[in-house]
Write a structure and sequence with these properties.
single chain; 369 residues; alpha+beta; 2,3-Dihydroxybiphenyl 1,2-Dioxygenase, domain 1; eight-stranded mixed sheet; 8 helices; 16 strands; globular
């Protein structure tokens, strides 16, 4: 199945429409195949336009940031124990979700168990929300069928002071892994620092995939762990075409791409579970948001849309500095919310908000900062 692109393509459609406005199309005749494929070759000095990476100052006007990761688990007790006892998070609340807080896809009629955990003594780690799965719930990303080559919301990313220590802790607890820790290196001139790391990809009790990473260089400007782990602060979206994903983030949140790197390392393929030889581009949208976009160079994949009645990593909660302005941006772009209201979070028991579906089926709960 090829990649679907809901709520996107407005800018691309306009550009395509202009390109196809040839003499035949203006006159009402259907463009020929040759006209549809035609590339205008200028024979004189011509102005050209392109897209550049945004600076830090104008890449994130709404100060958007991930503030919570929602995982749907068939065993809430096991999930709480994992994040509390192994990752080192603190349980803030564990209660039934009241009716009417949210109409996000798959939320149901209320009464589901709902737990919130945070990372103590960390300004970087965000909340993990555990939502009880309905009986017999299917997985969002079925295993072993799905891989990073399939577009959608992939992982929650965290850190550790030592990958061997972290891997041993999770392996001893019986957590499923894709591979042992793998080393990788990227030179990122846009960030002004090299990425020199070791990571591995475990799964939580709800089937949610994670990346847990350790910085190798002592001078690297990345989060340092006080304990074994430092919690989770970012996420990755995979796609076969980054343009509609970038367009969604810019149109819905005003976010612009700030970096891009390439990856062709087989040890990274082993780390994430991609076929050997997989090549992809990856980089960030906005500064301080916590979202990476990966463009996988593959001919086809399967989109697995997120829903709160399926297990695994199901939704990201995004805080913005102006919720009304975010709504207005979405309305101007023709992006319609797929849910109203929001679930409780550590700073607000009854937040105002709404839910959006992204370009490759991912869910975003948007709340006021």
């Amino acid at each position: 199945m090829t990649e679907s692109k809901p709520n996107i393509g407005r800018r691309a459609a306009i550009k395509t429409g202009v390109t196809l406005a040839t003499a035949s199309s203006i006159s009402g005749a259907k463009p020929t195949q040759a006209e549809e494929r035609a590339i205008t070759a200028p024979d004189s000095i011509t102005a050209a336009k392109g897209e550049a990476f945004a600076s830090a100052s104008d890449s994130n006007p709404l100060e958007a940031k991930i503030m919570a990761f929602t995982t749907v688990s068939p065993d809430v007790d096991a999930s709480i124990a994992f994040y509390r006892d192994i990752i080192g998070m603190t349980l803030l609340s564990d209660e039934s979700l009241p009716i009417g807080f949210s109409t996000a896809p798959g939320i149901g009629n209320g009464g589901r168990r709902h737990a919130l955990l945070t990372m103590p003594e960390s300004a970087f780690a965000q909340t993990v929300r555990i939502l009880e799965a309905p009986p017999g719930a299917d997985a969002i990303r079925p295993r072993p069928d799905s891989s990073p080559n399939d577009p959608g919301l992939l992982v929650l990313e965290g850190g550790t002071r030592d990958p061997a220590e972290s891997y041993h802790a999770l392996a001893s607890a019986g957590m499923q892994m894709i591979s042992p820790p793998r080393y990788y290196y990227f030179r990122n001139t846009m960030w002004g620092t090299d990425v020199d790391s070791m990571s591995y990809a475990p799964f939580g009790p709800g089937g949610e995939q994670m990346f847990i990473t350790a910085s190798i260089r002592s001078d690297q400007k990345l989060v340092r762990s006080v304990g074994i782990h430092n919690g989770f602060g970012s996420s990755s979206i995979t796609t076969l075409d980054q343009r509609p994903v970038n367009a969604f983030f810019e149109e819905a949140f005003g976010l612009k791409r700030t970096s891009q790197m390439e990856c062709y390392q087989d040890n990274v393929c082993e780390l994430v579970g991609s076929p050997p030889g997989t090549y992809f581009l990856w980089g960030n949208v906005g500064v301080g948001v916590g979202i990476e976009v990966w463009e996988i160079k593959a001919e086809s994949g399967t989109v697995y849309p997120c829903s709160l009645d399926k297990t695994g990593l199901a939704m990201l909660t995004m805080r913005v500095n102006d919720l009304a302005k975010c709504r207005a941006l979405c309305a101007d772009a023709g992006i319609k919310p797929v849910g109203e209201g929001a679930m409780p979070n550590p700073t607000n028991e009854r937040p105002d908000g709404f839910t959006l579906r992204g370009a490759v089926g991912e869910l975003y709960e948007v709340v006021q900062a």
